[in-house]
TrEMBL record, chains A, B:
<feature type="domain" description="Aminotransferase class I/classII large">
    <location>
        <begin position="72"/>
        <end position="398"/>
    </location>
</feature>
<keyword id="KW-0032">Aminotransferase</keyword>
<dbReference type="InterPro" id="IPR004839">
    <property type="entry name" value="Aminotransferase_I/II_large"/>
</dbReference>
<dbReference type="GO" id="GO:0008483">
    <property type="term" value="F:transaminase activity"/>
</dbReference>
<keyword id="KW-0808">Transferase</keyword>
<keyword id="KW-0663">Pyridoxal phosphate</keyword>
<dbReference type="Pfam" id="PF00155">
    <property type="entry name" value="Aminotran_1_2"/>
</dbReference>
<dbReference type="InterPro" id="IPR050859">
    <property type="entry name" value="Class-I_PLP-dep_aminotransf"/>
</dbReference>
<dbReference type="InterPro" id="IPR015424">
    <property type="entry name" value="PyrdxlP-dep_Trfase"/>
</dbReference>
<protein>
    <submittedName>
        <fullName>PLP-dependent aminotransferase family protein</fullName>
    </submittedName>
</protein>
<dbReference type="InterPro" id="IPR015421">
    <property type="entry name" value="PyrdxlP-dep_Trfase_major"/>
</dbReference>
<dbReference type="InterPro" id="IPR015422">
    <property type="entry name" value="PyrdxlP-dep_Trfase_small"/>
</dbReference>
């Protein structure tokens, strides 16, 4: 170094304050030292056993040995993604290829959509509970974040309409419409339509973050957004964000945004200044896999069966252990169960945290998902990557930890 | 849609004005219709024939079939990158693992570094000519961009020091120190040291964008930045940005930032709000490839030989065709040759553009790389991905297009 004390270049405001972890497991520190092997119910990843690694290997092999794709699969690609994958996603989702931008997963889609609409000082509305990483994106862009309660069937649109009539204005509303990654709630078709009609009337965008919509447990997929909003050329308030992360694995970093063709062009231009373009090898491999739609349908079916079974194991175990003292809705899809703890038990209570740590079982604190008024009476349990026996054992430990506190 | 004319949600300021293409080929539109097959000297990609697809296939196969990595390679990974690849890059580059953040290529490294330091209104200095995509990143973050002339051996640091003594202050200086992707210029060791001493004395950061430093044509690699600045824990002004894009292919989207451990932590936190993390499959595959350092050294040697030969073919052809009327420095590394056109020939002259279009040869206009005072007397020629015969043919066509204009 040169002589003298260096004058330091400053960080930006964003880099100046590092965020803590957005998901707060209950006393992981204490749990790590416990005697029993850990049961971790905080994850949101696909099951290790269900993913088809052999097919993945076949796909990368085909792409890297085919003279038509080998060089392309390790080259620069367009910022909106490779054409064939955009076509495949467009056909699957029932829109035009110009409405599809391929992203590096759903988080990247939220980031790009937020970049396209938020300036410092803009107001953004989020349903609560909400996904803390999305909240961070909005806040780092300088947005002021307001909240709207998520109810059965969707966000409180009566409340929203009252606000809007009273003069409140928002740049965007952020929602996780299907099998929400906290509550498991599904926004029904009527709510989806009404939300977009309000968006049209009052001029806000709708960011619909939808990573779980393909993983339904019933007979039918959830109702979609009205088709009239999904194939716009010039303008639509709707930005639908999807991903292969929950079905093919997050390590591919391949997702998409479906929006108006005009918005897709803008997101692609923004992307040039973020990382230029996405992973060519990942996009070519996934495109190769999707050339066999039967294979993909069969995989989705197998995943739905697996996760439905695990959800049932978890709910049965919760009934058996807690009777009616833990309240929850049976998950209809996705990876998570959202449970209200017995009256008098709260996740911000150090007695509760200590009891769970002694049992070495991790759940996600519900109070981390409310930006304004934390509700400490909920926990989230992820069942996707945990086998049936360990799910039962996990609930057994929850009972051993919490039931004595009720006496 | 709902009744009535929809009120449109606005775009952000960033998305409101789309940038045009940053690289301006000479009349691509006219050229596309010409009779001769196109010779495109605008690219900056590795040669198709030199990349080892079989090794890539072996690596993805190994990763996807090894029980220890299959699931991990399609899962979420830490935002700073997988530990093993960070270790490998750290050892290769002679720093500690805590100083390494894995990125999605160099562009993503510039973006993350810029996010970490630039707030709206900050002043950023760039050498000219400079890389337009980096310029876009700084401007989109609201920076005010000033320029410093690039000279033989590095930027004009005498001029910079006079400015700084006179009270000018910058948040960051952006430079491409080795085989600059426009001029091919190398910043020598003395310039590198002095730049960092100025950074320490006047409190600015140095963003050193270095994608070509491994592709030298002489006996030795270019001088590095002083080691004392490269392994800081708490603070260093230096952010070194590297990538495997030019050596293993940009489609992997794997690069790195080397910075202080504190800065690496901040960049990782920022990354959580951009795309969460990078491509696991890409990082695991490249890490597997790097386990054989002899293989990687041999590949780099083969690439250096190939590109050195092409640079010589191009310079010989230019001498043969133009004699001394086209001025350039023999490239010492990298992918590009920067040439001053014969006196009286300028790329913003429509006669010149028409003549090149008729020959169906594309070069990159030099005036697109000056943010303030465009200099239309230069063109850039990329030789990395064009075979010797076509390089000669390309120069022949340049002669046919330009020499008649001299008479």
């Amino acid at each position: 170094m040169s002589g003298g004390v260096p004058v330091r270049a400053g960080y930006s405001q964003i880099a100046g304050h590092l965020g803590g972890p957005a998901f707060l497991p209950l006393r992981r520190d204490a749990a790590d030292g416990a005697a029993k092997p850990l049961i971790d119910l905080t994850g949101g990843v696909p099951d290790e056993g269900v993913l088809p690694y052999r097919s993945y290997d076949d796909a990368t092999h085909a792409v890297l040995t085919d003279a038509g794709t080998a060089f392309k699969s390790v080259s620069y690609i367009p910022p909106a993604g490779i054409g064939r994958l955009r076509e495949q996603v467009a056909r699957w989702r029932g829109v035009s290829v110009d409405n599809v931008l391929i992203t590096d997963g759903a988080m990247n889609g939220i980031f790009l959509a937020a970049q396209a609409m938020i300036d410092p000082g803009d107001r953004v509305l989020v349903e609560t509970p909400t996904f803390p990483f999305a909240l961070r994106i909005f806040r780092r862009l300088g947005a002021q974040v307001d909240t709207l309660a998520l109810r059965r069937g969707g966000a409180d649109l009566d409340g929203l309409e009252r606000q809007l009539r009273g003069g409140a204005r928002y740049k965007a509303f952020y929602t996780i419409p299907d099998f929400q990654n906290l509550t498991g709630e599904v926004t029904d078709g009527a709510h989806k339509r009404r939300l977009l009609e309000l968006a049209d009337r009052y001029g806000f965008a709708v960011i619909a973050d939808d990573p779980y919509c393909d993983l339904w447990f019933g007979d039918d997929e959830p109702a979609g957004f009205p088709q009239g909003y999904r194939q716009a050329d010039d303008y639509s308030p709707l930005y639908e964000i999807g991903t292969f992360s929950k079905t093919l694995g997050p390590g591919w970093r391949v997702g998409w945004v479906i929006a108006s063709a005009d918005a897709v062009r803008r997101l692609a231009a923004i992307r040039l200044c973020v990382d230029g373009n996405g992973s060519a090898i990942g996009q070519y491999a996934i495109s190769r896999l999707l050339e066999d739609p039967v294979w993909f349908d069969d995989l989705l079916d197998a995943e739905r069966r697996l996760y439905r079974g695990r959800a049932r194991t978890l709910t049965t175990a919760l009934h058996d252990t807690f009777g009616g003292s833990v309240l929850f809705d049976e998950p209809q899809g996705g990876f998570f169960l959202w449970a209200r703890l017995p009256r008098g038990i709260a996740v911000d209570d150090v007695r509760v945290q200590d009891a769970l740590a002694r049992q070495n079982v991790l759940v996600t604190r519900g109070d981390s998902f409310y930006p304004d008024r934390p509700d400490a009476s909920y926990v989230r349990m992820g069942f996707s990557a945990i086998g049936d026996d360990r799910l039962r054992e996990g609930v057994h430990r929850l009972g051993d930890a919490l039931l004595p506190l009720l006496r």
